[in-house]
Design brief:
ten-stranded mixed beta sheet, about 300 residues, 9 helices, single chain, 2 domains
């Protein structure tokens, strides 16, 4: 195992051996294995860098022959044990491992530059805000409902259009319905009062997803325009969802902000895993079929 790794086109997930990390790893393995074209799963363990020790402490460390090697070997055993458990459940999945030094959130965010998707558990703010591609957040407290619908937060930003493609792909692979919900404030769109707002929001949503509805005829689609703030509607829908998919920053976001308010709210309050899209990165198929780079 080398200190460098290849994340291009892979699903990347970090582990520290905790139950929280195991949940994210197994979620990643389950859903990576659904792909019609195999996508490797790269499991990374990061040996956290610590401040330089004092001169006296350094002398002690130097006296301990192979101290760094021991730490590395322990880390390699950990990640190999995790990979073995994944292989037992998903024997056909291509599993790769790596041990690197650094800060876990920085390493995973960097992997997002060319990964198909990065999967994180627990606190994910830095990764979601800084990864260039797509990040799936699987907190310890959420339920995995693989038979639940995919809930899509709709907007017509570039991040939102990628979210549409990702959501339809996931619903198709899982064989579940898709619920599309406008993720914009209806009052900002200038609709007339009351019922007309809902009607206009639904019409706008239907236009946004029309191409994907035609491309994925096997996916049952419902468009809903809940009253109130869109983030509240998405959070409520997450109670029974298999996942929520949303762009990192909708069209109402301000230039320079890495996460929109609605996205941040959903991440903090969702009852299901949340997939946040920023750019295509290592996901090369813009039609949503998830073909590997080599196929283009």
């Amino acid at each position: 195992m080398l200190n460098k790794f290849d994340s291009a086109g892979r699903w990347v997930v970090g582990t520290d051996g905790s139950l929280r990390a195991d949940k994210a790893v197994m979620w990643a393995a389950k859903h990576a294995s659904e792909r019609k074209v195999p996508v490797p799963l790269l499991i990374i363990h990061v040996i956290q860098e610590s401040p330089l020790p004092s001169a006296a402490a350094q002398d002690v460390i130097n006296d301990e022959l192979g101290h760094k090697d021991a730490v590395r070997l322990q880390a390699e055993r950990l990640v190999q044990d995790v990979a073995a458990r994944v292989h037992e459940s998903y024997p056909d999945l291509v599993i790769e491992t790596a041990v690197v030094r650094g800060q876990p959130e920085v390493v995973l965010a960097a992997a997002g530059a060319d990964a198909d998707q990065v999967v994180v558990g627990g606190s994910a703010d830095h990764v979601v805000a800084n990864a260039q591609g797509t990040v799936a957040v699987v907190p310890e407290h959420v339920e995995d409902r693989p038979e639940g619908p995919v809930v899509l937060g709709l907007d017509d930003s570039k991040e939102g259009r990628l979210a549409i493609a990702r959501a339809f792909q996931a619903a198709s692979l899982r064989g579940v319905p898709l619920i599309a919900m406008p993720a914009w404030e209806q009052s900002a769109r200038g609709e007339s009062p009351s019922g007309r707002r809902d009607e206009s929001a639904i019409e706008g949503a239907q236009r946004l997803i029309a191409d994907k509805v035609a491309e994925f005829p096997e996916v049952p689609v419902t468009v809903e325009a809940p009253s109130g703030r869109p983030e509240d509607g998405l959070t409520e829908a997450s109670r029974t969802a298999g996942m929520v998919v949303i762009g990192s920053r909708g069209r109402a976001g301000f230039t320079g902000l890495r996460l929109g308010a609605a996205t941040r709210h959903v991440l903090q309050n969702s009852y299901s895993p949340v997939v946040v899209t920023r750019g295509y990165a290592g996901w090369q198929d813009q039609t949503g079929r998830g073909l590997p780079v080599a196929a283009h």
